[in-house]
């Protein structure tokens, strides 16, 4: 074999090897998307609107897939069959009317075939006239706030406005109207198993209909890049049976019960008032003179808002649904609970056996280290000295112990 031949075959085998390498990487990336138990799988609808999307996306993917296989197959066939081997230039021709007309009509038929069900699905997804409850949803950097106005929702009277965050609690089998907006930048609300996405835009209110077929917990996340902690802006929808939803509402609106005197929780309340209550509201909390304490995040936080902590321990997570309050075992049990057992399990809240204090303690020790929020005091100039998110409060371990003791009673 001559030197030239050898180098040509080396170039070929290098090319072949890199082509195989690329194919392996591409296949690995593709199959990495095939999780078995994926909580945010759009192909596992659990509510009517998600089912409508599913009914549309399957045939469309099927048609697109068939067209894709034909097109790519033809291209590969032509590339190989007619590649330049030094043969003569073929005779050039112009125009094949029959083929051209066929290749115009066929795509038009496919487009109409896809277009009609697409438009009708878009209209049926937009329908909100049948909703029975309203929840005002506000995107914040980087968490979601849910406000339930006074109303009768799924047969349950909500006698006072109710505010929560992280977990959107809904009565099961009840179409709920979400009125979605944002307090700062554009976010996007998405619970894939229940419906498609809806952008949260400052100054606008967008409607989204949410309904779950069965009691359970449904994961979602913000899907519009919204700043430093966009990846930590998660949310969950929780569907409870009718009795359970009533129990949840009644509990959320229950009067404040202060910690018993001379307990760590009582000392924690004092620390909470001194360190946290400027921004974090606990409804009903009073100062030593019996005056209600109203938080003023508008004075201290750039966004002017912070999550309400009144019933923190009825939720399973905190800080944009990013960190668990439940330990792994209890979290797994809740997420895998059969629908008929889910409601009772959720309403237990964070029990002492299930409470995992580690993440909450880390958060209190130095929140911006756990979730980036521009809370570095040296970078506060552009925000007029206000914090964007929760700053490092410099709490001592003793203060953290007591504040955690106080917060674990907020249920
Ligand atoms: Cu909010 Cu991304």
Question: Can you walk me through this structure?
Answer:
The chain is 39% helix and 16% strand. The protein is built from 11 helices and 14 strands. The strands form 5 sheets. Strands 5-2-1-7-10 form a 5-stranded mixed beta sheet, with no helix packed on it. It is elongated, with a radius of gyration of 28 Å. The structure holds dinuclear copper ion. The site of dinuclear copper ion has 9 residues, from loops.
Q: What bound compounds does this protein have?
A: dinuclear copper ion
Structural class: alpha+beta
Overall pLDDT confidence: 91
Element order, helices and strands?
HHHEEEEEEEEEEEEHHHEEHHHHH
Tally of DSSP helical segments: 11
Helices and strands, with pairings:
Elements lengths: L2 H30 L15 H34 L15 H30 L6 E8 L2 E6 L2 E3 L2 E3 L3 E4 L1 E5 L4 E7 L4 E3 L8 E3 L5 E5 L5 E6 L12 E7 L1 H11 L11 H12 L21 H4 L16 E2 L4 E2 L3 H8 L3 H9 L9 H9 L1 H4 L26 H11 L4
Parallel strand pairs: 1-7, 6-12
Antiparallel strand pairs: 1-2, 2-5, 3-4, 7-10, 8-9, 11-12, 13-14
Helix pairs in contact: 2-3, 5-11, 9-11
Bound molecules: dinuclear copper ion.
């Amino acid at each position: 074999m001559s030197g030239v031949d050898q180098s040509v075959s080396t170039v070929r085998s290098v090319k072949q090897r890199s082509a195989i390498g690329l194919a392996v990487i591409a296949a690995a990336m593709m199959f990495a998307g095939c999780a078995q138990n994926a909580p945010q799988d759009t192909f596992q609808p659990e509510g009517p609107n998600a089912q409508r999307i599913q009914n549309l996306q399957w045939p469309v993917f099927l048609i697109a897939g068939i067209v894709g296989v034909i097109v790519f197959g033809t291209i590969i066939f032509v590339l190989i069959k007619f590649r330049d081997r030094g043969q003569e230039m073929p005779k050039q021709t112009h125009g094949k009317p029959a083929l051209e007309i066929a290749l115009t009509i066929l795509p038009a038929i496919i487009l109409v075939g896809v277009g009609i069900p697409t438009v009708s699905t878009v209209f049926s997804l937009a329908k909100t006239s049948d909703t029975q409850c309203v929840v005002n949803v506000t995107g914040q950097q980087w968490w979601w706030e849910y406000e339930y106005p006074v109303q009768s929702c799924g047969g349950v009277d909500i006698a006072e406005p109710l505010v929560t965050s992280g977990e959107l609690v809904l009565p099961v089998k009840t179409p709920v109207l979400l009125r979605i907006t944002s307090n700062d930048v554009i976010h996007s609300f998405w619970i894939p198993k229940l419906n498609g996405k809806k952008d949260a835009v400052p100054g606008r209110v967008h409607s989204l209909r949410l309904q779950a077929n069965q009691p359970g917990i449904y994961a979602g996340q913000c899907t519009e890049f919204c700043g430093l902690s966009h990846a930590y802006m998660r949310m969950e929808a929780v569907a409870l049976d009718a009795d359970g939803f009533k129990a949840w509402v009644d509990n959320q609106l229950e009067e404040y019960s202060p910690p018993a005197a001379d307990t760590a929780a009582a000392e924690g309340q004092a620390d909470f008032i001194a360190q946290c209550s400027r921004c974090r509201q606990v409804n009903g909390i009073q100062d030593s003179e019996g005056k209600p304490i109203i938080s003023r995040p508008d004075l201290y936080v750039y966004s002017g808002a912070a999550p309400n902590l009144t019933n923190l321990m009825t939720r399973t997570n905190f800080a944009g649904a990013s960190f668990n309050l439940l330990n792994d075992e209890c979290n797994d049990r809740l997420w895998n609970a059969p629908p008929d057992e889910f409601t009772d399990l959720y309403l237990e809240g964070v029990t002492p056996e299930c409470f995992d204090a580690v993440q909450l303690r880390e958060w209190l020790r130095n929140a911006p280290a756990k979730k980036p929020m521009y809370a570095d005091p040296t970078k506060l100039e552009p925000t007029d000295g206000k914090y964007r998110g929760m700053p490092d409060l410099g709490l001592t371990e003793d203060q953290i112990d007591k504040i955690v003791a106080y917060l674990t009673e907020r249920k």
